Amino acid sequence: MWRHLLPNLLTLGNLALGSWAIALSYEREWVLFSGAMGGALLCDWLDGWVARALRSESPLGKELDALADLVSFGIAPAFALYNYLRPFLPALPYSREARFWMVITPFILPLLAAWRLARFNTESSETSLRFFQGLPTPAHAAAWTLWILSEPPLPWLHPALWIGLILLVGGLMVSSLPFLSLKTPQNIPWLFGLLLLIGTSAVWVPASPLILLGLCAYTGISYLASRLG
């Protein structure tokens, strides 16, 4: 029985850390928030690895994993963006309607994450491929966590930039674009190239744009790898 219990406990750890991250976002404790999200990401990686190693994969674990991922990688980033924006709202020189849509837009992310996770669970063959269909929810959460931790400057709070960026990154989750799996050894050369590109760019690109550049590079390299085989 312990073989089935251990992976599920790790999944619950993911859920607990994601829930804590939501609370931390209200305190604007972004370093602690990032630590909680990093712990959730680690638990999400370990639960699948442990389940495969112990041969204890189960339908219960699969459904529990999706529920935990929705909270940690869909809902937590939405609340983080909302709470990041909140203190700046009164000083923003935009119309009331524009500020309203800026507040509402982050909460589209949990809806898109739910769709992405449900699609993943109903397309079980996806797990055996080198590529995921759409941006994985953990990668989505990691991108927003790093972006907020970089303390993006005020120009990013222009309504068009703010709303457009959220819709773009969220839309990648439900897109049909291929994304390299981090768990497939065949993908290591491509992932190494991605890290090299990001590391080189870090010398001259500021932190906030670098994170978005890294996401764009991940998208582009994944598409190139899928075309070249």
Description:
The chain is mainly α and 229 residues long. It has a domain at 69-228. 72% of the residues lie in helices and 3% in strands. It is built from 9 helices and 2 strands, in the order αααααβααβαα. The chain has helices spanning 2-27, 30-53, 59-85, 96-104, 109-122, 137-149, 159-174, 188-201, 207-228, and strands spanning 131-133, 178-180. It has a two-stranded antiparallel sheet with strand order 1-2. Helix 2 packs antiparallel against helix 6 (137-149). It is globular and about 55 Å long. The N and C termini lie far apart (41 Å). The mean pLDDT is 91.
What keywords describe this structure?
two-stranded antiparallel ribbon; 2 strands; globular; 3% strand; 229 residues; 9 helices; mainly alpha
